[in-house]
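Forwarding the complex inputs:
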Amino acid sequence: MSDVRRLSLNQATVQHLDVAQAADLCVRHAIPAIGLWRGPVADAGLSSAAATVRAAGLHVSSLCRGGFFTHADPAARAAALADNRAAIREAAQLQADTLVLVSGGLVPGSRDIGLARRLIADAIAELVPAAQELGVRLAVEALHPVFCADRCVISRLGEAVDLALQFPADAVGVVVDTYHVWWDAQAGADIARAAGRIASYQLSDWILPLPAQTLLGRGHIGDGHIDFAPISAAVAAAGYAGYIEVEIFNQEIWDAPPDDTAATVQQRYAALPG
Amino acid sequence: MSDVRRLSLNQATVQHLDVAQAADLCVRHAIPAIGLWRGPVADAGLSSAAATVRAAGLHVSSLCRGGFFTHADPAARAAALADNRAAIREAAQLQADTLVLVSGGLVPGSRDIGLARRLIADAIAELVPAAQELGVRLAVEALHPVFCADRCVISRLGEAVDLALQFPADAVGVVVDTYHVWWDAQAGADIARAAGRIASYQLSDWILPLPAQTLLGRGHIGDGHIDFAPISAAVAAAGYAGYIEVEIFNQEIWDAPPDDTAATVQQRYAALPG
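Prediction (whole assembly, two chains):
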């Protein structure tokens, strides 16, 4: 059995709830932490959102998300950096454990994947001082290669680790997300390499067939093809003792009653080997 | 400009044509080689298919495909091995440069990806003597990780190379397929590691959005996001001097007049840096 005191519900799993509703849901289901998204936080107002989750007694395990650094155009690049600096300030005020970075796909109009990767490393280097000043840890997320062209050219955990290792450990870590890394024969070795760098551990399952919107092809733990136990064991062996977020993008789950979703999240998580 | 004397049309690109029609198409468009599929070859009759392509003066750059080894059930496993032995005999009679292996996804009812990978290595070991006896080279194909669960747990070229290196080079090589490997930051290094092991080089482009049937999301060269030049340069630097196949799964292209498709294949290929 997993330790439910480490469970966090990522707000994206209950897409239609605002911050207050999502916080109430966590409280009703004895889920002690929440992963927040910048959109609903902005809708609630940053101070109000921070007060709401604090009053609910919830820990904020992550803020999603910064990133989208892959602009060659100077104005677009400056705007992305400014937006990420804002995200760092928001993460600080929310006392989030980490700010998740989805780094961006190919540069618009370009097929140069190396260029995109260099722009990402450069952008993170520019953000590190701001992150350190406010005590916010950035978390580089590798996305499944199916998202390489349009969302994130950091396609393997190993690449995220290589990136993070260029910076101080308190400033830059990585996300381990089962959905994105389960297929990778090197995932276990890369999780070990990430010791001291794991800033977030997220769970969802790989289900088939893929839906028309590829982004929404995630399932509840146990509904798909992922063997969670070895990944969780590797994450634990690498020293990660933080919250474990369930983050599911799935239209059917979004359309379900949120209390049903939270109950399923809780049950499926608890039933994992711990 | 690429050398059109090295171009091969994979039959899957003109899905609705039988072997004789596909061979005629290649001749009409001065495409000197063809990649055949076992289904249409069986429809034509093996001897007749072999005679047809030979009479047309075409080289057979590959036979697609063997594989699907990931069965734990002994009867299913024996059937898969028997089918692969038949495929080896067919490849020999067609004088194909290689028999492409799509290794199979997770074992039915299992989430143990390590088990699936072990079953693949074991199956290839069993097939190597038959392949050597008939002078057929097997080509392990890594499929894009989006196909990991249901089609091929060999998700990176590096894994395919690791597998091939366990066996004699004349018996087991790898396929480099741009569609499957373009996203991988290690692809260049793994192509270099594959020197002397590249048995097939296949081209198609990664287009977005993905179609409802994930398998059919390939495009003509230049219609998508892949930078072909560095991959082709790495393949050439690794010593591969064989045919270069264009293999596209795409409903729109299948529905187009085959002569238009062949002309586009020819033009787009020729325009690549060579």
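Chain B has eleven helices and ten strands.
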